[in-house]
Write a structure and sequence with these properties.
Blueprint lengths: L2 E3 L4 H9 L3 E5 L9 E5 L4 E5 L2 E6 L6 H8 L2 E7 L7 E12 L5 H5 L10 E13 L15 H6 L6 H11 L14
Antiparallel strand pairs: 1-8, 2-3, 2-6, 4-5, 5-8, 6-7, 7-8
């Protein structure tokens, strides 16, 4: 049976910290728009307070999460135990995308010391915290993180200006035409 929590307590935080992957779900307001679910790995998640979290948007193939958060802020995060005891934790709430050129970005990036660059950091005010059994989630063994995305994001051969320009142009719009990366 599912349980609701008032805040991210030590037990929930320990569970979240132990997971190697989590999922981010967002959707546009338009019912014809595409629902998006993005898997996230690395050490890219931080609990900032009892109802305040952040995760790193290193980059990737699309800009859906950022575009949806800009449009309506609705977001759900899901953490599944793929080893050990079965459990799923979901965080629902309102999120905001803080782009790399936002003055708040450097202070948020300090929560992710393994990263020098990121396209954005998503911050979320958590309005609902719940768990469920997770009995249907298969058991998997973690081997390693994939290195490609970090190599791409941290490429020292690409100047900061070229790196930024790539994101402004390649991530200007979501697949539904919503605004993505915009110059601040």
């Amino acid at each position: 049976m599912s349980k609701l929590y008032e805040e991210i307590d030590d037990k929930i935080k320990a569970f979240i910290d132990a997971q190697k992957m989590f999922f981010v779900a967002t959707a546009p307001l338009n019912s014809d728009g595409h629902v998006n679910v993005s898997p996230k790995g690395y050490d890219s998640f931080a609990v900032l307070g009892p109802r305040h979290v952040a995760w790193l948007d290193v980059g990737g193939s699309g800009i859906e999460t950022l575009a949806h958060l800009k449009e309506n802020g609705r977001v759900c995060l899901m953490f599944c135990a793929f080893d050990g005891s079965a459990l799923i934790v979901r965080l629902h709430g309102q999120g905001e995308a803080v782009q790399f050129d936002d003055p708040r970005f450097p202070a948020l990036l300090a929560h992710f010391p393994e990263f020098d660059r990121a396209r954005a950091i998503m911050v979320m005010e958590v309005t609902r915290i719940s768990d469920s059994c997770g009995w249907g989630v298969p058991v998997y063994e973690f081997r390693e993180e994939r290195a490609q995305l970090r190599r791409y994001a941290d490429n020292p051969a690409k100047s900061a200006e070229d790196w930024a320009e790539k994101y402004y142009t390649a991530n200007a719009k979501s697949i539904d035409g919503l605004p993505g990366m915009e110059r601040v």
